[in-house]
Amino acid sequence: MLNLLLASVGNIILYVAIGILAILIVLIIALVPIKTWFIALVSGSHVSMTRLIGMKMRRIPVAVIIDAYIMARKAGIDVDVVSLETHHLAGGDVRKVINALIAAHSAKIDLDIEEAKAIDLAGRDVDQAIRQSVTPKVITTDMISAVAKDGIELKVKVRITVKANIARFVGGAGDETILARVGEGIVTTVGSAETHGEVLENPDFISQKVIDKGLDIGTSYKILSIDIADIDVGKNIGAELRKHEAEARKVVAQAEAEERRAMAEAHEQEMKAKTQQMQAVLIAAEAEVPKAMAEAIKDGKLGVMDYYKIQNLNADTSMRKAIAGDATTNKDENNNG
Question: How far apart are the C-alpha atoms of 99 and 83, rounded to whole Å?
C-alpha cells in the first residue's frame, strides 16, 4: 500500500515538472526571439539574449532593429544596438537612418549617426538628403515677371540645380525659400537693366547676378547653377502706366472744367437775379412818377400844359427809339445777307 502511494506521489511530481517545463518552454519561445538571435550570431553581429528579451518586453520591433544593426555592421559602420533602440523610442525611423549612413559611407560623405538621427527626428528625409548630396536636385520655377527700366516686361523661367548641404539640413530653409530668393534676384536683376534688349542679348547675365548674391545662405541646399529655361517679352508696362496717368490727368482736367462751368452758370444766374431785382426797383420807381406828377398838378406846382409837354417828349423819345431799333435790325439783316 505504501509503495502504491509513493508511486502515485512520484507520478504527480513528474507531471508537475513536465508541466512547469512546458510552461518554461512556451515562455522562452514567446519571449526569446531565437530566430533573430541566431541570424545575428551567424551574421557576425552578436546580440545578447538578455538584450533581445528586454527589447521584446519593451515592445520594440526586434526584427527591424536587428536587421538595421546587421546592415550597418556589414557595411563597416560602427553602431550600437542601444543607440538604435533609443532612436526608435524617440519616434525616429531606424531603417532610414541606417540606409543614409550606408549611402554616405559609400559616397565618402562625412555623416555620423548622431547627425543622421538629428536630421531624421527633425522631420527631414535623411536618406533623401544623402541621395541629393550625391545626385543634385533640379527645381523649376514658374514664370517670373520682371520689368526693365525701359518699361518692357520680361517673363523668365529658370531651372535651379541644388545639392543638399548636410551640415545645414537641420534648421535650414527648404525649396520654398530658394524659389522665393531666386525670384527676388531675377526681378532685381532685370529691373536694374537699362533696356530689356540687354537681358535678351545676354540671358546668362541673370544667372550670374543671382548666383553672385549667395541666395543659398542659411538654406538646406547649395546652389550649383541657375539656367534660363525660357524668357519671353510681355507687355509694355511703362506705356500702360503712362496711358493710365494721362487718363487720370484728363479726368482731373474734366472735373476742374466742369467745376468752372458750374461756377459760371451759378454766377450768371446770380446776375440774372440781381438784374430782375433792379428791374423791379425801377418799375416801382417809375410807378411813383405818375403819383408825383398828380400831386404836383394838385398842388399847383405843375401845369396841365407842362404835363402835356412831358407826354409829347416821352412819345417823341419812344418814336426815336423805335426808329433807331428798326434801323439797327435792317443793318444786321443786310450784314447777315
Answer: 15
d(C-alpha 294, C-alpha 25), whole Å = 155
CA distance 122 to 96: 13
Cβ-based burial of 30 (10 A; exposed 0-12, middle 13-18, buried ≥19) = exposed
Q: Is the Cβ–Cβ distance between 115 and 91 less than 8 Å?
A: no
CA dihedral 245, 249, 252, 258 (to 10 degrees): -140
String of b and e for 78-89 (b: at least 16 CB within 10 Å)? ebebeebbebbe
Read off the pTM. Answer: 0.51
pLDDT in tens, 194-205: 888 887 888 887
User: Tens digits of per-residue pLDDT, 166-190?
Assistant: 777 766 777 788 888 888 888 888 8
Binned at pLDDT 50, 70 and 90, residue 11 comes out as low
Size of the chain in residues: 337
Q: What is the pLDDT of residue 66?
A: 85
Residue 329's contacts (CB-CB under 8 Å, 6 or more residues apart) are: none
- Biggest alpha carbon distance in the chain? 193
